[in-house]
Write a structure and sequence with these properties.
Helices cover 50% and strands 8% of the residues. It is an alpha/beta fold and 454 residues long. The strands form 2 sheets. Strands 1-3-2-4-5 form a 5-stranded mixed sheet. Strands 7-6-8-9 form a 4-stranded parallel sheet. Helix 20 crosses helix 22 and helix 24 packs across helix 25. The structure holds iron/sulfur cluster (SF4) (2 copies). The site of one iron/sulfur cluster (SF4) has 14 residues, from helix 2, helix 3 and helix 5. The site of one iron/sulfur cluster has 15 residues, from helix 3 and helix 5.
């Protein structure tokens, strides 16, 4: 029977009765019912969820999102509002740490996001923004091409002029967010492919240089290499590593993430490394899940498992090996910020603190509400500039309240996000990765080397 609205420009209607909408999820790894059923609705996760803290709405809490997933597996369609609540999740995993029932929200949201990316049609504006983000951020070479123009923009004074007018924020909030996040760029030579251990060799370590890390924080990579070598590690850095896939997997682009993962495994398994070290928390948490990501791939499942077993965050590896290099005093007060993907996703809190406390003269301050995300969350701050700035401002105020002169963390996204919040509040604090603090101590550079960038 022909639909009477056909060719009239009106929305089609089913003349045989109401159209049964497609259920939210298909059979390709929907959020698992058994994992959903683990949630006993106690609500312990609510106060640790940044979106619940911001808006106080049940649907923007972990419990509310699990409820929506349950609706979806029960056959409800994937509505725009459902997608919005899932999109608003930062993936910070604070709820995973807080949950007394051990609910695997990380698995649930990852599977949900992959379904959304395959089955939901986004608005043209959202599609264009996401296409631009994923054509740029996972490609270190493309990011490095931005360094020259960005440096010229910063040192010419144009950036300050643009900020003073406030025009960019009004006309293009996403660009304004990117502008506010961009770190001050410095020229640093790239580390060689192989760096010998200093003294007795204790381990052979493959190192991820990362996308944002290598393009915008090359000094963090240089410090990481020096610290590893000083601690007796031979460091191997094969060129053309590409992306680890963290950004893709955290945004539901599973097939893209798998391609990146296979490439990285194939490149590094030839090196004969004992460990694979990562200095960016977001990357580390994804690398530790390569075994799950590639579990269905017969050619890579066992290789991914072997690779995953070797992955270590820098602080984790240094704590495991124990210090051999002499620590020289650093007379400085630092505030340590827990990157969500280090603390919540990898459970690494004690090791960086122990490494910092091991430096004579250094005073370590804790930041209030450490479990609440700073709002960076991969590209969440680019996709959601306003709430991200609110979270960034909260974190910046808590950081400034410590009175520390250096903020230390282990994720490039957090460094950029908190720095932007601090600038908005007219504050000043130097920023450093844990590796840079250790490097300054081992090389006896004094506290001035850390606080000079303030
Ligand atoms: S991952 Fe973070 S933002 Fe998402 S539900 Fe859990 S606590 Fe909330
Ligand atoms: S804490 Fe765990 S069990 Fe309780 S509501 Fe949150 S996810 Fe569910």
């Amino acid at each position: 029977m022909v639909d009477a609205t056909w060719g009239t420009g009106e929305a089609p209607r089913d003349v045989l009765g109401p159209v049964k909408a497609e259920p939210a999820f298909d059979d390709d790894h929907p959020p698992r019912k058994d994992l959903i059923a683990d949630c006993v609705h106690c609500g312990f996760c609510l106060p640790t969820c940044p979106t619940y803290v911001l808006w106080g709405a049940e649907a923007d809490s972990p419990r509310g999102r699990i409820y929506l997933m349950n609706e979806g597996v029960g056959g409800e369609p994937l509505s725009d509002s459902m997608v919005e609540h899932f999109d608003r999740c930062l993936g910070c995993m604070s709820c995973v740490t807080a949950c007394p029932s051990g609910v695997r929200y990380d698995r649930l949201i990852e599977d949900t996001r992959a379904q959304i990316e395959r089955r939901h049609t986004r608005t043209p504006k959202d599609r264009a923004l996401r296409a631009a983000i994923f054509a740029l951020f996972p490609y270190p070479k493309r990011l490095r091409l931005l360094r020259g123009p960005l440096r010229a923009y910063q040192i010419s004074g144009l950036q300050s002029l643009v900020a003073r007018t406030g025009l960019l924020a009004r006309l293009a909030p996403t660009l304004a967010t990117l502008d506010s996040l961009a770190p001050r760029l410095r020229s640093v030579p790239r580390p060689p492919r192989r760096i010998p251990a200093r003294g007795r060799r204790r381990a052979v370590v493959g190192m991820l240089t990362g996308c944002v890390q290598s393009a915008f924080f090359p000094d963090v990579n240089s410090a990481t290499v020096r610290v590893l070598a000083a601690e007796g590690c031979e460091v191997l850095i094969p060129p053309a590593q590409g992306c680890c896939g963290a950004l893709s997997v955290h945004n539901g682009r599973k097939e893209e993430a798998k391609r990146f993962a296979r490439r990285l495994i194939a490149l590094f398994e030839k090196t004969g490394m004992d460990y694979f070290v990562v200095n960016a928390a977001g990357c580390g948490s994804s690398l530790k899940e390569y075994d799950e990501l590639l579990a269905d791939d017969p050619a890579y499942a066992s290789r991914a498992k072997a690779f995953t077993a070797k992955v270590r965050d820098l602080a984790e590896l240094l704590a495991e090996l124990g210090p051999v290099a002499t620590r020289h005093p650093l007379d400085v007060t630092v505030a340590y910020h827990d990157a969500c993907h280090l603390a919540h996703a990898q459970g690494i809190r004690a090791q960086p603190r122990a490494l910092l406390r091991g430096i004579p003269g250094l005073t370590l301050k804790e930041i209030a509400d450490p479990e609440i995300c700073c709002g960076s969350a991969g590209v969440w701050n680019v996709l959601n500039p306003e709430p991200a700035a609110q979270l960034g401002d909260r974190k910046a105020a808590d950081v400034l309240a410590t009175g520390a002169s250096v903020l230390v963390t282990a994720n490039p996204g957090c460094l950029m996000q908190v720095a932007a919040g601090i600038r908005r509040q007219g504050g000043a604090i130097a920023l450093a990765h844990t590796a840079q603090v250790l490097d300054a101590s081992i090389r006896d550079l004094g506290a001035g080397a850390l606080v000079s960038g303030r």
